[in-house]
Amino acid sequence: MSLSFWFTWKRKGSERSMNKENNTGYVEEEKALQKKIEKSNLNKSIIIDIMKTFGIHLSERQADQFLDYYCFLVEKNKVMNLTAITDYEEVVLKHFTDSLSIVKVIDMEKCSNLIDIGTGAGFPGIPLKIVYPHLNVVLLDSLKKRISFLDELMKKLSLNGIEAVHARAEDAARNSIYRERFELCVSRAVANLSSLSEYCLPFVREDGVFVSYKSMDIDTEIEDAKSAIALLGGTIEEKKDFYLPASVIGRSLVVIKKIKKTPSRYPRKAGLPSKEPL
After folding, report:
1. Low-confidence ranges of the chain (pLDDT < 70)
2. Structural domain boundaries enclosing 123
3. What is the pTM of this model?
4. Which pLDDT value is given to residue 15?
5. Quick one: DSSP state of residue 41?
């Protein structure tokens, strides 16, 4: 916390005391001041420097958006289950940086739109939108409370050209607004690749790409998913293994190219893709 901010905070102490006695906006003022103090204690250079390892050079505004994202995430996480990771440096590495690792396989500057399936707290869709504001983004999740969180977050970060949609992937993929409309589909959802492909490939247009974020050692999972991917109109183009910067956390990006339309009978009705993978 800077000295100038500290002295301002101290100077307003008497004002806060008066407000407390009068009970006039005291709670709101205290909360606002505490948020400023917490944000001022965060080291912005951590996220700026770690993004440089991916060749990403954040502007001051983008760095501030990530800080605001973090603060809002941990605040809301106190009352709803958004993430098990709340430490600042861990969120930067395991959520923000991991979300942007897609640059290892996709030139995001050339991508115009994407859909994030099972987005949860907004990963990877919102970090990608912050860094690449030209993107038109759809965030899809089946839980209404997470959609409400995302709507608040997008407003707080002043993001345009992005929407959060409350729907199951199996249902949204049958809506002509979304079916085979996207250049890129991304997902960090925890599911086997066969199920994920049935959820995700129907949203991807021909010549588009689905990228699945995975941990390492998934060769068997990929092999088991090949027939399902082919049935859904895709083909595995690449698997990129890497470690998150300055860590021993191994990650894989599975790149699946859409080479033909997905048959109209897919995805199957809600629940089947996970219960009975193709």
Report:
1. 1-41
2. 110-275
3. 0.85
4. 44
5. T
